[in-house]
Amino acid sequence: HHIIQLPQWRENTPRGARRQSTMLSAINEGLLELAQRDPDFFVYGQDVGSPKGGVFGATAMLVTKFPERAISSPLNEQLIVGITAGAGMIEGKARCAEIQFVDYHQSAAQTLRMAARIQYQSYGDWSVPFLLRTKSGSGGGGPISSSSAGGGAFGHSNAGEQWFTSIPGMITVCPATPFDAKGLLLEAARAQSPVTFLERGRLYRSEPPKDSNSNIIAAMAEYWKVPDGYYTLPLGKARRLRIGDGSPSIAIICWGTMVLEACTAAADTVNRVGGTIEIVDLRTLAPFDEEAVAATVRDANRVIVVTEESDLTSFGRHIHSWIVQNCFYDLDGTPAFIAAVQAPAAPYNGPEEIAFFPTARTIEAKIEELLAE
Fold first, then answer.
1. Mean pLDDT of the residues in the chain
2. pTM
3. CA angle 168, 169, 171 (to 5 degrees)
4. How many CA atoms lie within 13 A of 254 on its CB side?
5. Any idea what DSSP says for residue 113?
6. DSSP assignment string, 130-151
7. Nearest-angstrom CA–CA distance, 198 and 103
8. Which of 132, 148, 205, 232 is buried most deeply by CB count within 10 Å?
9. Dist. CA 109–CA 323, nearest whole Å
């Protein structure tokens, strides 16, 4: 317990009116809430103090209300992380660093590793609470299956979780919906351990997932309605969603953009052949919700793990092997695994990017394969 300090989550019901939102707006609102509650809170990163609010506009509300707390930095990730982590260490409260793209976290690798282990090295005498927000994953402006536009290509398409989840002492979060993004961000600011907040670029402006008939998937629709004001969601807890009625015949474990793709695949399968498929959205990757993963394996007996990473010592493979090691006798067969192409980076143009990453179609094909066994 002295390696990672998850905040003790307090049950809280969002009291504000809920309205349709995007993940980008939800993150803006979350940062503004933190600034309103803590007069010393700030965001530090490239262009975050510009009128646009950074390259993606995630700090636009903060710039409008508290311009002195959205501080533009030099193009130096090591400096960004060092300043923010150092401020958190001194003040005992999380300050927010923004690295524009997760691909460039390596410039700050030594500082990130040190920040994550100080609590352990100091026998709990010191903590380094800080938030690292960064755009991660494939580019474009919406779910992969519905986007024809090119994305981040070679330099801006890395998923990132395979590195951050390998650091002892680092909490890693990857939300899939606007509701989760705001609630998890506000809870992450309460942690005394460093938190990496992976924001999938495709999800910044995405709509709720739809089936192939363009019907919004009911199980997901409510998570695009974000409450006004302050609320938090627990770190380290997955969400289990069932599409269909009855006990699940297959469970799909995923996070980030892949949650939307998996929901579309599950809905299309259920619409066509009936049955029930469970989607497990991990939300927090490190530490991930072992109880939820084990429970869904017990219920479904057949499992697919889907990740946006290339399958080269990926975090998704860690989940896959954990299931085999810990849930072996609950499985009807080897868990399936779907990942991006084993290549250095994604292509830029739309059709090739769709072929590079897992989509609803590739997930649906794997579901059919498992159902036929």
1. 92
2. 0.95
3. 110
4. 30
5. H
6. EEEEEEES--SSS-GGG--S--
7. 11
8. 132
9. 29
* CA–CA gap between residue 321 and residue 315 (Å, rounded): 10
Q: Which residues of 146-165 are buried (b: 16+ CB within 10 A; e: fewer)?
A: bbeebbbbeebbbbbbbbbb
Domains along the sequence of the chain with CATH: 18-203 (3.40.50.970), 234-372 (3.40.50.920)
Q: Are 316 and 307 in contact (CB under 8 A)?
A: yes
Task: Give the pair of three-digit tokens for residue 206.
Answer: 């995405």
Contacts of 250 (CB under 8 A, 6+ apart): 277, 278, 300, 302, 303, 304, 367, 370, 371
In three state form, how does the secondary structure of 154-179 look? CCCCCCCHHHHCCCCCCEEECCCCHH
The yes-or-no answer on residue 2 being catalytic is no
Q: Which band of pLDDT confidence, cut at 50, 70 and 90, is reported for residue 145?
A: very low
What number is the average pLDDT over the span 182-194?
97
Residues in the chain: 373
Dump pLDDT digits (tens) for 260-300.
999 999 999 999 999 999 999 999 999 999 999 999 999 99
Both tokens assigned to 202: 């495709």
For residue 237, with 0-12 CB atoms within 10 Å meaning exposed, 13-18 middle and 19 or more buried, which class applies? middle
pLDDT tens track for 61-103: 999 999 999 999 999 999 999 999 999 999 999 999 999 989 8
Which entry of 105, 156, 318, 320 is annotated as an active-site residue?
A: 156
Q: How many angstroms separate the Cα of 319 from the Cα of each of 171, 218, 237, 322?
A: 16, 27, 15, 5
* DSSP output for 280-322: EE--EEET--HHHHHHHHHHHS-EEEEEEEESSS-HHHHHHHH
* Beta strands 303-310; 250-254: pairing state: parallel
- What angle, 0 to 180 degrees and rounded to 10, lies between the N-to-C axes of helices 23-37 and 178-188? 30
